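During the second year of the project, the team shifted from modelling isolated chains to modelling whole assemblies. The rationale, set out in the original proposal, was that interfaces cannot be judged from single-chain predictions alone. As a representative example for this report, we include one of the complexes processed in the last quarter. Its constituent sequences, exactly as entered into the pipeline, are reproduced here:
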Amino acid sequence: MSTNLPAIRFSGVSRHFGEVRAVDGVDLEVRDGEFFSLLGPSGSGKTTCLRMIAGFDHPTAGTITLYGQDVTRRPPYDRDVNTVFQDYALFPHMSVGENIGYGLMIKKVPRAERARRVAEMLDLVRLPGLAGRRPSQLSGGQRQRVALARALVNHPRVLLLDEPLGALDLKLRQEMQVELKAIQQRVGITFIFVTHDQEEALTMSDRIAVFNHGRIEQVGTPAEIYESPATTFVAGFVGISNVVSGDAARAITGRPASFTVRPEKIHLREPGAPTAADEYSADGQIRDVVYLGMNTRYRVALDCGSDLTVVEQNLRTTSMDVLAARGRRVRLAWERAHSRTLAESE
Amino acid sequence: MAAPPPPAASPGLAGRLSTFFYMRPRLLLLALLVPPLLWLGVVYLGSLFALLVQSFFSIDDFTGRVVREFTLRTYAQLLEPANVDIFLRTTGMAAAVTAAAALLAFPLAYFIARYAAGRLKAFLYLAVILPLWSSYIVRVYAWKTILAREGIVSWFFAQLGLGGFLDGVLALPVIGGPSLSTSALGMFLVFVYIWLPYMILPIQAALERVPASLLEASGDLGARPGQTFRHIILPLAFPGVVAGSIFTFSLTLGDFIIPGVIGDSSFFIGQAVLRHQGTAGNIPLAAAMTVVPMLIMGVYLLVARRLGAFEAL
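Output from the structure prediction step:
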């Protein structure tokens, strides 16, 4: 079902709770078939946005359209979207099959077809034959899959996922990230995914909207968000914060504008080593070394009065070598193209 | 250099006792369980057993003495039309009171569980529980006055020009009577009033355990509020409704005060038991009559289990 209309469009959407501006003047377009993430810290308004798309909450200003249809004031049962809840919200008094078939039962789909589509969904989420179980007999990962199947069986035009992987342990979460992405590509439904985990958003999304204080700071592909953060907030929230501002920035680049540089783009060199014409450099002292196995993270205090984090792969070094580096003087250098000038966040 | 820790004080008796029990958790459990088990096993089950034994004795019609021999004669007496009448009347009243209490309690319980918070919630709790703090007999007699022919209810209907309507209702067979306070309808009203808190609290507790996300999920999957109520809220609150109805049903079955104060002179089980064991001195028949509500409750619980009332517990 390809169309030029955006799957979801927010036009000047606000949701104020009295004095609290949970969402404040958000404009947003999610394209058809996209895996779109709403990323931000808790209380940044991402979940409220998702709830307004689902219809559990309604904007105090602005409009929301779903494939061109104004759904701003419609109740949840009257819009073609389905939600995977953070706590899964499986009905405890129904079997797995009844849970998945609930939406079809409400739509009065005949029993035989319901059973067929439930079985199909159980195959899709790799839980074949579990239709007779109770939700309480399932593991967290299995419940997660049932919640996904229960939403997808209705073939919604947009699927909303509210931090669905938050309750899973790391290994399972990484597995589910890959699987969720694969399922999305298979069913071709627009996914809107809420998360506070930047790594998760970078791994799975086609595009990401970064939220802060009820507003969107930046919308872009994972590479754009990571490599060219638009604001100090995005630079700090996505990846390791490496923001230099004020006098320290002037000392390095000659301009007072804040900039950021990703830790893996910085080279550690001997003091006094030459700097190429297309590089920036700064001298400092290694203050902290964290050995992470695959790589090592150095915290360097710059002489010009700022801190930078540097990550180097342990290609030849051992933990003994890197830990001995603490306190050594170094020169940091990176290509000018890897510095990003930032706008100030509010 | 830190000062060495002071030597541990030698433990007192309480300390030694704590350690003794800490190391022997099973012994502690036993010590804690013996008193309630004695109470339940000996006092409670024991007297129940004595009751059951009594019901298989009979009374000598001539001497009025209890004959301590096993017989089913007393149970046969239960099947006399006058007694069957009492059982049907009592069970019918208990069922009607339970149904009415459930219908009245549900909306309030739902409101307390889902919408009320803070002070309002505390106030509503108090309002529900407060009547239980005052004497039940006082409240029953208060209702007798309220429902009397010269009482406030009749007066109110007369003021609204509906006195004829009230008289019409009272003229109905079975539920009617000379006045509200001497009719089955009046008794029904008082029963519902007295037992309502026992219905509200369990339903409220059951609804409290239903996460809001389940209701959102149901709406999200296309269910209108009425469908969400039927498919999600009601089934999940059902254990609470059953718990509450066990209270209202069994309390109505066994009550002998309200039928004595309110209503006409037709007997209820509780009154019959009271008369047989008190005035008439027919302990075996009184015991057999007590077994009847127990059987009715047993059947009731089996039906409730069939309906899945205990599955979500």
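The first strand of chain B starts at residue 58 and ends at 59. The two ends of chain B are 58 Å apart (CA to CA).
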